[in-house]
Design brief:
mainly alpha; elongated
């Protein structure tokens, strides 16, 4: 039973979460361009989507 527990806890919970964080960091690294205008446009699009999908339906009630 010890081998199964060790494989489950070490393999999935600990090593799996570390791999997931590493993968997510790699994805976010691709989005980092260092260009301020790119970040500003992304932020403006995000705020517009937030207004469209969250605030606008609340105002229509």
């Amino acid at each position: 039973m010890e081998g199964g527990d060790q494989a489950l806890i070490d393999g999935v919970a600990i090593d799996g979460s570390a791999r997931l964080v590493g993968w997510f960091a790699g994805v976010l690294r691709l989005a980092q361009t260092g260009r301020l205008n790119s970040y500003a446009i992304t932020m403006i699009v995000g705020v517009a989507l937030l207004l469209l999908f969250v605030v606008l339906p609340l105002v229509r009630r």
